[in-house]
Every structure is written in structure tokens, then in C-alpha cells.
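# nightly structure sweep
# worker-07 picked up a monomer target from the shared queue
# config: single-sequence mode, recycle default, output format = C-alpha cells
# input follows
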Amino acid sequence: MSTRSARLVALCGFLVTGGMLAGGAVQAHHAVAGVYDLNKEVVLEGRLKKLNFVNPHANIEISVPDKKIKGKIVDWKLTTASIQTLTREGINKTSIKPGEALKVTILPARNGGPTGFIRNLQLGDRNILLYFGDGSD
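# output follows
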């Protein structure tokens, strides 16, 4: 095999391997069902601590009073729909201010930690459905 042919074979192998790895990363990114329990919903009411308006999904940190221990606050880290979905619903990086009251319905993390994927967001009198998928997106 010539040096040119060997380089071409190596390049093709590199591209195929890279494509498979990238495909796996995309699948892992979109596997909501693998991380969150699609059969359970939890309603949280608290105050916005932080909004990270970043791609591919914004993140919200919300401080919620613990239902079991009086006076204890639990900080939940929640993933939202895509930036495009939020923008389409009229939400941008300044729409929700720290300290603002929020009510969210989430799909909780399978590991039981204070994390989840926001299914529904209630801002004042607006009820915004952010996720209605089957877990594959």
C-alpha cells in the first residue's frame, strides 16, 4: 500500500470513529429518559437563585423550602428546554429576576438528588409548557 493510500485509510478511519463518538455524545445529550424519571412529576415552589441562559439548555437554580425540615432551604438545579424554546415563549436572560417566586413542575433526577428537568414553568399568571416529549429528546 502506498503512503498516500495509507493516509487516506487512516483519515477515513478517523472520520468514521469521530462520527460515531459525536453521534454517541448527541444521543447522550438527548437522552432525557436516562437521567430523569419520566413517570414521576414533582411540583416545586421557591425563589429564583440563578438563571444560566446558555446553550444547549438553560439552567435554573431555585431555592425551595424543605417540606420535611422546617427552616431548611434546598437549592435545586434544574434544566430547561432549549434557548430557542424559551425565547419563543417570551423568556430571555432578564425575564426572571433573582428572588422572583417560581412554581415549576419537574421530572426529577433518577438518582434522587435535587435536580430535574423542567416540564412546566409558572411565572405569575403564565403557565408555560416547556417539555412534553417521550424522553428521546
